[in-house]
Amino acid sequence: MLIKKPAVCGTLESSDVQITIRPNEGNGIRIELDSVVKTIFGDEIIRTVQEVLNEFEVRDADISLVDKGALDCVIRSRMQAVILRASGEQYDWSKEDALWKTA
C-alpha cells in the first residue's frame, strides 16, 4: 500500500499512542519511537509496527510514535487507521471478519 499523504491517529492520553505517518517514497521504512516504556517494551512495539506495515504491504514510510503505555491491540488498531488515512484507500474489512470466524 502506498502512503500518499501525512496522517495522524491516536492521542497523547495515558494508555494510548499517537502515530504520525508520512510518505518516504524510495527510502524504505523509518520508525521513531518515543515511549514511557521504551526500555522495557520498545523492541516489542517496533515489532508490532513492522508486522502491521507488512500486513498492509507498506514498503516506504516515515513513522513517528509517541506512546503513553498503549497495549498491543491499541497500537495495532492505531497503525491500521493511520495507514488507511495516509493511503486514501478503502480496505475490505471482510478479510478480517473471515479470520475471526475461523479462529
From TrEMBL:
<comment type="function">
    <text>Covalent carrier of the coenzyme of citrate lyase.</text>
</comment>
<keyword id="KW-0963">Cytoplasm</keyword>
<dbReference type="InterPro" id="IPR006495">
    <property type="entry name" value="CitD"/>
</dbReference>
<feature type="modified residue" description="O-(phosphoribosyl dephospho-coenzyme A)serine">
    <location>
        <position position="14"/>
    </location>
</feature>
<protein>
    <recommendedName>
        <fullName>Citrate lyase acyl carrier protein</fullName>
    </recommendedName>
</protein>
<keyword id="KW-0456">Lyase</keyword>
<dbReference type="GO" id="GO:0005737">
    <property type="term" value="C:cytoplasm"/>
</dbReference>
<dbReference type="Pfam" id="PF06857">
    <property type="entry name" value="ACP"/>
</dbReference>
<dbReference type="GO" id="GO:0016829">
    <property type="term" value="F:lyase activity"/>
</dbReference>
<comment type="similarity">
    <text>Belongs to the CitD family.</text>
</comment>
<dbReference type="InterPro" id="IPR023439">
    <property type="entry name" value="Mal_deCO2ase/Cit_lyase_ACP"/>
</dbReference>
<comment type="subunit">
    <text>Oligomer with a subunit composition of (alpha,beta,gamma)6.</text>
</comment>
<keyword id="KW-0597">Phosphoprotein</keyword>
